[in-house]
Amino acid sequence: MAEQAVKKIATREGYGEALKELGAEYPQMVVLDADLAASTKTAVFGKAFPERHIDCGIAEANMMGVAAGLSLTGMIPFVSSFAMFAAGRAFEQVRNSIGYPHLNVKIGATHAGVTVGEDGASHQCNEDIALMRAIPGMVVMCPSDYVEAKAAVRAAIEYEGPVYMRFGRAAVPVINDHPGYHFEIGKGTIVREGTDVTIVATGICVDSALGAAELLAKEGINAEVVNICTIKPLDEELIVASAKKTGRVVTVEEHSVIGGLGSAVCDCLCAKLPAPVKKLGMQDVFGTSGPAAELVKKYGLDAEGVCRSVLEFVK
Amino acid sequence: MTNLELKKLANEVRKGIIVGTHSAKAGHPGGSLSAADVFTYLYFEELHVDPKNPGWEDRDRFVLSKGHTAPGLYAALAHKGFFPVEDLVTLRKVGSYLQGHPDLHIPGVDMASGSLGQGISAAVGMAMGARLQKKDFRVYTLLGDGEIEEGQVWEAAMFAGFRKLDNLCVIVDNNNLQIDGPIDQVCSPYPIDKKFEAFNFHVVHADAHDFDSLRAAFAEARETKGMPACIVMKSTKGKGVSYMENNADWHGKAPNDAEFEVAMADLEKIEKALAEEVEA
After folding, report:
1. Alpha-carbon distance A229 to A202, whole Å?
2. Which residue in A131, A163, A151, A129 sits closest to A251, CA to CA?
3. Which pairing describes strands A189-192 and A223-227: parallel, antiparallel, or unpaired?
């Protein structure tokens, strides 16, 4: 049977499109960027609403503070840069000027993880989830595809408080384009039911997990796949229920295994249902230059790599 | 309000600073005292604010970028009527709303601050918000002269100057002392005026302890069109308390019981002299 052609598009494209759509509905919305509008896709909003698109120049620390100030006058700022600079460089501004006063600022961070590709380790942020989820009151989301990215941005503006959204640079398959799809902050989704092992994935790794589940089926292993877009607050109920059913959990993320989805799942399970967990992701290493797809494979985050790790784990 | 009335109020603000930091056994009296007159001037002459309605949408905003001098801000807010003056003794205590650094839950506080260099960016964002929403309120922010060593201050200044935010007034409390010593011996930010001018600000000089000078400076800042204003205010750290004046040791140290008595006696002496003074 010939494989159906899968539509591929980057999650950052969903971010830009959603901003443009919401801009028409929310006159108090304003979008800030730090000289990366074409890359982060905020330029899509800027073209439609130039007077509400503020390029702050290459000055991310100030941009976070300006967003805080704008929100205190009743506007709803979306702030964008690469994840490295939004969560990394400006961490303390996000923590003290946005998180501590619990302001209604939305951070749209693109180019997260190793799929930044050729730019290499200096630009591949594998630590942003860890940094952002450590801030009290911060919602952290990592959409799995274009459809979920758009849904997450809409959910973010409807939510009152600080939100961090993580988007990728590379085109990835659209997996949520079906009539039953529903998005809610803090709710995970079982995207494939199974009984032998739970694979919890976030972002672009949800597609790898689904692919791995197909490969595992051929080996006689029936994997359940859970899509966790909201890493904080985590859908603990769903994770505990799935772990109870399968007895073991594998987490997959394009992020360090220190502090990310894997850590969040472990934090949950060690308190509520101790179970064996294997964390897949960046194993305490920096990335390297190369095409995105090759890097995903190199770090074992493609379907084959995830399948291999799951097989080792369940043996 | 007359200068004499302002002087009397500023002296009360200074007492509040001493009472609060003494009670907390911690805090930053030096920079609070150097800014006591400008806190007083801002809340009793310059800012359009309403203590009965701290969240009034069209109020002028004030961001204390040098957030460690919260004891001075709190004393001014209390005397303005945002909360009881009696609460100043709860400064920095567990369970008190008067946090060590400004917190958004405190009535009258417009932005959490304390991590140096961040308040000015929030003030710039507020000024931008006013412009985008076609509102007339003005935004003021007070920075320490040591604080302007932070790079973020200049990111914010570049943005404000470039965007010609003439509804923004930046004030620099130039007491010449930071924790480790005189600012020109630690990592000199001088010349402060020329730096802000280079970032497209209209710079005004003022004497931080002379209400005529402050009055003229704020009037000039308000009248400045097409660019933000920066008031570089020459001040004395620890102003009003004999042993704290011009002494960096009092940057972040509270007076003990004996020192408290001396400080209060100094301020009561000033109070007595002011009581005898007749408005010129």
Report:
1. 6
2. A129
3. antiparallel
The enclosing H or E element of A78 equals strand A76-82
Q: Which of A223, A214, A221 is nearest to A194 (CA)?
A: A223
Please tell me whether the interface predicted TM-score (ipTM) of this complex is above 0.90.
Answer: yes
> Is the CB of A36 inside 8 Å of chain B's CB atoms?
no
Residue A75 burial by Cβ neighbours in a 10 Å radius (0-12, 13-18, 19+): buried
- In the residue annotation, A60 being an active-site residue is answered as yes
Whether A97 and B156 lie within 8 Å, measured CB to CB: no
Probe site for chain A from B103, B126, B154, B167 (most A CB atoms < 10 A): B126
Token pair belonging to A262:
């894997």
* Residue A66 contacts B where some CB pair is shorter than 8 Å: yes
Residues of chain A with C-beta less than 8 angstroms from the C-beta of B102: none
Residues B189-229: pLDDT tens digits? 999 999 999 999 999 999 999 999 999 999 999 999 999 99
H-helix or E-strand spanning residue A210: helix A205-218
Cβ separation A62–B123 shorter than 8 A: no
- Residue A118 neighbours by CB distance under 10 Å: 11
Residues A65, A70, A74: CA angle, nearest 5 degrees:
145
For the segment A152-163, what is each residue's pLDDT rounded down to a tens digit? 999 999 999 999
Q: What whole-number distance in Å separates Cα of residue B35 and Cα of residue B143?
A: 10
Under the banding of pLDDT at 50, 70 and 90, the label for residue A2 is: very low
How far apart, in whole angstroms, are the C-alpha atoms of residue B63 and residue B271? 29
Residues B58-72: what's their mean pLDDT?
A: 98
Among chain B residues, CA nearest to A74? B129
**Nearest residue of A to residue B112, measured between CA atoms:** A101
Quick one: pLDDT band at residue A1, thresholds 50, 70, 90? very low
Strands B181-182 and B177-178: what pairing? antiparallel
Closest partner CB to A69 (pick from B122, B133, B158): B122
Residue at token pair 């079906």: A178
Q: Does any CB of chain B come closer than 8 Å to the CB of residue A238?
A: no
Q: Do A56 and B128 touch (CB under 8 A)?
A: no
The amino acid sitting at A70 is: L
CA distance B115 to B112: 9
Mean pLDDT, residues A101-111 taken together: 98
Contact between B122 and A97 using a beta-carbon 8 Å cutoff: yes
Token digits for A216? 């595992």
Q: Which residues pair with B232 in a beta bridge?
A: B172, B205
Q: What residues in A contact B152, CB-CB < 8 Å?
A: 61-62, 65, 93
pLDDT at B101 over 50: yes
Residue with tokens 């360090």: A256
- By DSSP bridging, strand B229-234 and strand B168-174 are parallel
Could A74 and B127 be called an inter-chain contact, meaning their C-beta atoms sit closer than 8 Å? Answer: no
φ, ψ for residue A202, nearest 5 deg? -135, 155
* Contact between chains at A74 and B122 (C-beta distance less than 8 A): no
CB of A56 less than 8 A from some CB of B = yes
pTM of the shown model: 0.97
A49 and chain B in contact, CB less than 8 A: no
